[in-house]
Every structure is written in structure tokens, then in C-alpha cells.
Give the backbone structure.
Amino acid sequence: MERSLDMDIDRGATVLPKPPDQSARPSALERTASLEWVRALGVRIAFAVVSIGVPLAIWYLGTRYRVQFYIRFENVPTPLEVFRAAVHVAASNTFATNIVSSLKRIFLGFFIALVFGVVLGLLIGRYRLVNRLLMPAIEVMRPIPAIAWVPLSIMLWPTTESSIVFITFVGAFYPILLNTIDGVESLDGVLLRAGRCLGASEAQLFRHVILPGVLPNVFTGLAVGMGVAWVSLIAAEMIAGQYGVGYYTWEAYSLVNYPAIVLGMITIGALGLLCSGGIRLVGQFAMPWLAYVNGARK
Amino acid sequence: MTHVSKGRIDCRNIGVVFGSGAAQTEAVKDVSLTVEPHEFVSLIGPSGCGKSSLLSIVAGFTKPARGAATLDGAPIRKPGAERGVVFQQYSLFPWLRVRENVEFGLKMAGVSRAKREGTARTLLGLAGLLAFENHYPDQLSGGMKQRIGIVRALAANPRVLLMDEPFGALDTQTRTVMQEVLTNMWQRFRLSVLFITHDIEEAVFLSDRIYVMTARPGRIKAEIRVPLPRPRTAAMIETPEFSALVHRLKTLIREESLAAMGSELDAGGVAGFSMEMGPNGVEEIL
């Protein structure tokens, strides 16, 4: 008896929650619902096309008519020139190498920032003693932008590679740390009390109450941190780099290869978008309960 | 279900003090109370009388300034699984599904997955909530969340249940239903319960015994036994015995509420409210 129950539970655990009456819905209604869904998707895509299309059109028209209205489109490459440059570099290996080395630096710096930011954030948020010991130093260091670390970082670290990863880490670290601390400090106290009177030890509280409780804040920190990490990485690559998208963009400027500048910029934008999209996706997967929290959404 | 043979709460000469120095106020003064094994005891009193402070001491969240609380003779020093607590605020873990919430206490105790799933499903079934085992708390109504809160506390297999105005946040209709649900569940589990409320009908309907507390500093003003038969049903609310008990308690509480407001009334509180207002109303006074 107990065994069969367990099997039921195993199957039940993977099913998404839905009201018990949903299985009895007529299929006509489902069809309407799916039609509605396609329509909503269409509207969404239309909005996205307008959102991206308008700046593209301004760019095209500005370069097409060589507009000079305080800002100068004189030397700005046209969309077609940039597209040609893209086709050209797509055939070469160096461009792919640049992308891969930028991604490597981002992931390494970001991952180290994630581990340090979350662990320190949990400890600082939870224990007053750790807070008093570490926060003064952090408050002093925090206003120093990651870019300002470039010269010292080159001196400190044995290789260019490690100094660039360090700068990326610095950029991503503070948003992750501060959001984690904020998450711990604003966690609803009744959840901790509930955990304790259900028999949780301090370690269990960390693992089963505090960590999942601050996960939404951590992901906010990750999203912000990823943005700052890219800013820091590109700056570091422009100044100190060998390879990397930032290096590519700056090199293009030095070589008066104007289409390549814009191509570099667009590549940075696309890679950044990909990274934050990845974080959002992981966040949705890691925090399925948030789908039912509406907040102030209209 | 495992049978609980113990579960006696003893509070001896408890005193609670808030603040320090000149701002020090005595919230609870020399309170002694007992909950016998398998007994449902309510603690009622005007707001601010320190009834929640007392529960917090028994739960182990705070320490009394004077006196001591014990469970089956052992002094209470910190929160523990043997004392289940149901809070007034919703306290389900929003990241866990309903069944995982119910399993939480057993998981902390290291009970195997299969076993705790079985227990959780049995209890959810008894509470009529099995259909929602895979829901997240944010998908449920307030009354359901509180029912699950009770089930979660029970699932950890506590010796006593401490309830701090668990239905305080619910609307009157849901409240009435919840009281019936609770008395039915109590009938089945027969745990010792210490129940905090300011709702007199609720206390009478649920309890074997009721302690009435005075206004601050909170002391025990009266101890009243509820002779209504078990199991309790909604129909009992209409009986003259029920009304008589409610009336008696209301008189006791009213005295205390007046006493609590007394200082304000003397200081011109009422005069202030009945003040004649000019055409500009409150603005003029300000």
C-alpha cells in the first residue's frame, strides 16, 4: 500500500501545479486559448520589431543622407557596410577567437563573483560580527569602479588574462554581494521562526530557509552584476587586452576600420543580451514559485 | 499516528519587561499557568496585555525576565520541534510546494523521503487538502494557508501546539469554518494546545479552559473552565450555556479594556474626540 502511494507521489512531484478541475476543460476552450496565445505572441513580436526597427531606421537614414545636426553621421558606417564587415569576419577565425576569449573571461570572473558574493553576503547578512568586520572595508572599496582597477590590476596579477578576469570579478561582485545581504536582512522573520520551531538547526536554516529565501535577491544581483561585468570586461580589454570583443572594437578604431567598430559594439550588445537572458532563464527554472507572485504587475 | 502521552506546559511566575532604564515597562507580571496533557487552553485579554509575549516564551523565541517555563518538567531555552507553533502571519515557505512545506519538520529530523511523504499525504488528506499538495502557497487563499500551517506544525510530531491568533488575519466567515476544522483536528490528535486569541467566542468554542489576562502589566485575572461537551459542534454556539460563558468573559474583558484605556480617558482622550469642530473640521484643530 505504502509502495504504491510512493509511486503516485513520484509522478505527482513532476506535474506542474494546476487546479484540480482543469483536466475537465472542453477542448474548444483550449483551442481558443492557444489562438489567444498565438495572437499575444504576434503582438509581442510586433512591439519588439518596432522597438529595434526605429533606431535601425534612424541609423540608416542618418548615414544615407550624411546628416550633420550637431551630431555627425559623416564618418559613421552604414548598416550595409557593417553587415558586409560581419560577413567578412564570420569567415575568419580571429573574430570567433575574440568572442570565445571574452566569454571565457566573463564566465570565470562572474562565477568567482557569484561564489564570493553569495557566501559573503549570507554571512554578512546573518552575523553582526562578520558584518562589522567586513563592511567597513567593503564600503571603502565599493565606490572604486572596476575600470579604475585596471592599472593596479595589471601590476598585481602575473598575466594579462588573470588581471582582466579580476576586473570582471570586481564589476560583478558588489551587485551580487549587496543584493544578497539585502535579501538576508529583509527576509521575513516569521519564516526563520517557523524554521526554528520545526526543528531546523543553524546549518539547516541556512540551507533550507535563508538560501531559498534570498534566491530572488541573488538573481537580481546576478542580473545587475552581469551587466556591470560586461562593462568592466570591455573597458579592461580595450586598455589591457589581447583578444576579446573590447580589444577588437578598440583595435578597429586605431586602424580606422569604422564598420568594425560598430560590429564590435553590436557583438557586445548581443553577447550581453545572451548572458542576461541566460540568467533570467536559469532564474525561472530555479524559482518556479515566483510565477505565482504577481507583485505590482498590471 | 504516534500517540502522545506527554505535553504539559508549566509557566511559573513569569515576568516580561520591555526596554531598559527609564523607558522600562513591565509587560507581564507574575503569570503562572498550566496546560495539562491533551488539554486545549486559551489565553485571552485586551491587546497589549502580553499574551503573545507569553507564547513567545513557551515557544523559546524569547526569555522571560523572571520566572521560567517548562515542558514536561524540562526548562524551555530555545525553539524546538517538540513545540509546534502556528503563527498569525502566513508563514509557509513560499518556495516549497504544499506537501514539501508539511514535510519540512520531518526533513529537518532526518526522516526518510518515503516516510515523510506518506505522513504529509495522510495529514493533508485528513485536512481535505490533498488535492493541493503540489500547489505553491501563493496559489492558495488565506484560510487554506493557515490550515496548511496547522498541518505543517502537526506533521513535525510535536508534544504541544502553540497558536498565536492563527485566525486573526482571516475574515469572519473563514474564521468560523477554521474554528470547526481546528476543533475536529484537535478531537483526532488530542494534543495539548496553548491558544492565544482576543476573540471570546473563539476561545469558548475551542477550549477546555480559558485564562483571562489583565491589561498591562498582564496578570492572570481569572481562570474559567468550559464545561461544554466534546466533540464541539457549530450548533453549540446557539446554546444558553455558551452564551452565558461568553457573557461572563465579555464582562471580565470589558473591565480590563476600560482599565487599559483608563489613563487615556482621564487625560482628556474622550473630551478631545467630542470637541466641537468648526467648518474646517480637523484642519482647524491642527
Summary: Residues 267-278 of chain B have pLDDT under 50 and may be disordered.
